[in-house]
Amino acid sequence: MTRMNIHVGTTDQPLDAAAALEFCAAPGHGAVDLFIGRVRDFNQGKPVLGVSYDLHEALCRNVFRELAEETVAQWGSDTRLWLTHRHGRLDVGEASVIAAASSPHRDEAFRACRQLVEQMKHRAPIWKQEHYTDGDSEWVQGHALCSHG
Amino acid sequence: MNNAATPAREVRINLFGGFRQFHDQPAISIEIERSATVATLRGRIAELFEDDANARALLKASAFATDRRVLGEDEGIPADEELALLPPVCGG
Fold first, then answer.
1. Taking CB atoms and an 8 Å limit, are A97 and B92 in contact across chains?
2. Backbone angles phi, psi at A56, to 5 degrees
3. Strand bridging mode A6-11 / A80-86
4. Alpha-carbon distance B13 to B63, whole Å?
5. pLDDT at B1
6. Is the CATH number of domain A2-39+57-125 3.90.1170.40?
7. Distance, in angstroms, between A126 CA and closest chain B CA?
8. What is the gyration radius of the CA atoms in chain A, in angstroms?
9. 3-state class of B9 per DSSP?
10. What is the per-residue pLDDT across B34-67, written as a single tens digit (0 to 9) for each?
11. Domain B8-86 = CATH 3.30.1330.30
């Protein structure tokens, strides 16, 4: 899903950091901030073999779009943003999410990229199940989307 | 229960994340009154999990959504749209 200065998406294929940087390139932009989230080999005292990501694709793309539009409104209409998240089974070291932001100056690029990532973690319909070396698997606890009692 | 004022209809609720461990199908179908709210639907699903305290705890912390947005607890169930049951999220 690409519209002018925003690209968001989900995929079961490996993520492409070079594509994110290329999308965010603009002659007037002197700063590009790139974030890559990767599967790490240890969490909460347990060695991790890999992570399975589950997501609601249609809602996820809509939420990504909403987050990106909020970020552009906050940090400038010429900010360019990229946000893609992978789903399916990933091994340790593989990229699960790539976010990039570019702007004329570094402060806006840093802040826009961080806002996009933090909001994604709190609001996007994505879940992860960690697989451990002892053969066990657990769904990771997250942030509730609801506000009812 | 069916009645003339609020006939029942079937609603499909797709399951995600941790709910996949509590149900052997990717979705639940429930017959519910057309006037039902999200809160009503939550109660009906809780009945399905009456023997599983972990599932009911996860349900309490979860939201309902369409493909476009998260629904409020007092909203009616949208017509002709599949719903999703969304446990607490943790992307990245």
1. yes
2. -95, 100
3. parallel
4. 12
5. 47
6. yes
7. 5
8. 16
9. strand
10. 999 999 999 999 999 999 999 999 999 999 999 9
11. no
